[in-house]
Specification:
Low-confidence stretches: none
Largest sheet: 2 strands, antiparallel
Number of strands: 2
Oligomer: single chain
Distance between the termini: 19 Å
Length: 85
């Protein structure tokens, strides 16, 4: 079965300064530090404005990606017609 077309769009741009989604290295560092301290989880205004649903869905996606990685690296079993390989 072939993969469907990619649906995701970039969140931000790191290198092309002419791109409308470009952010500077200092802004990336600020975002990284904020994430490392858990600011996205600790800010009540973020959650009141729908952020909790976004964080929940991102966690679900992260788990799906990890499952794909596990399967893609051969550490998962392939179950076909009730038998495992």
């Amino acid at each position: 079965m072939a993969l469907g077309d990619k649906k995701q769009r970039k969140i931000y741009e790191k290198s092309n300064t002419n791109d409308p989604f470009f952010i500077t290295g200092s802004k990336q560092l600020e975002m990284s530090r904020s994430f490392a301290t858990g600011a996205h989880i600790k800010n009540p205004l973020f959650f009141e404005n729908g952020g909790s649903a976004i964080i929940f869905q991102m966690k679900e996606m992260q788990e799906d990606i990890e499952e794909l990685r596990r399967f893609g690296t051969g550490s998962g079993e392939l179950n076909v017609d009730g038998g495992s390989f």
